[in-house]
Fold:
Amino acid sequence: MSSKPISLPSHRPLLSRTGWAAFLVALIVVCAVAPVLNLRVPSESIFHLSDYGVGLVGRIMCYAICALAMDLIWGFTGILSLGHGLFFALGGYAMGMYLMRQIGLEGNYKSELPDFMVFLDWKELPWHWTFSDSFVATLFLIIAVPGFVAFVFGYFAFRSRIKGVYFSIITQAMTFAAMLLFFRNETGFGGNNGFTDFKRILDIPVATPSMRMTLFVLTGVTLLGFFLMARWLINSKFGRVLQAVRDAETRVMFSGYNPLGYKLTIWTISAMMCGVAGALYVPQVGIINPSEMSPANSIEIAIWAAVGGRATLIGPILGAFIVSGAKSWLTVAYPEFWLYFLGALFIGVTLFLPDGVVGLVKRLSKTNIKSGDRS
Structure:
């Protein structure tokens, strides 16, 4: 008796032709158009990109990296984290420690120690500041510290098969506990004031237009690079297993796969992405403090992914721009209504747009195509 051969899924390209065209346009805008509009076009011109605009878009691109990281674990793996603000802040603190060491003798107390340590009468740097004067070591810590914390937490959580709302609550509790820890002065992280008053990075002044634009371009290129990496992961066999875990984890186990390794790997990668986003965020805003670990910030990351559209990769990026852009406008124009707007937005998306903005666009496109065929 002959049996039909099993056909494996065909290899999907990383991006379609239209996708590559859009990617190149985004790359050109980030690396060429924005720098020219900011540095070369006169400030009185309507085409000038202001320093405020550069800083705002740069911050939102950092948020978009976090939203993309959230999509990998929530949209494609089914793990809702309400603690990713912790990994974002850990990367930011690692960069902030380096920036504080770069101040040198230019602080208010003219000491090699950061000003807050002199104020607290510290005589020497604590042990966890040992490599903070090295940029190379800082780059390693930006990735390693969030990755290590995520790996240890994820190993015990996933091994215990904690999932669903219980996992979300535990991640939020972890973030809240870390925030309380960093608020304490004796931990050596600046207490509730955190780190600020940065002067230089790699001995180059931070507050110059050229450095501001360099950080902007670096953030944009990092976001685009992470997008390609995420596409590659999701299109691979690894990504297909992740989606199978999301849809039916028990069946995956019966098929001979151990979900622990897959969930732990994508969880750790997602945390490291947030750490990189935090490190890019700190020199652009000029401050890092424990408020970045607040549970509200982690919830907002999930809202970005939900508004844009989970399991789409591009959707969470759009969601970060939509929500953060609205926040920047509303907190200035109508500050008392911002939280109400955010809550209404999340409820509205949950009830009427379960697939987010990207899902709405897809449905409208299909409707237009069908109406065109009938005509």
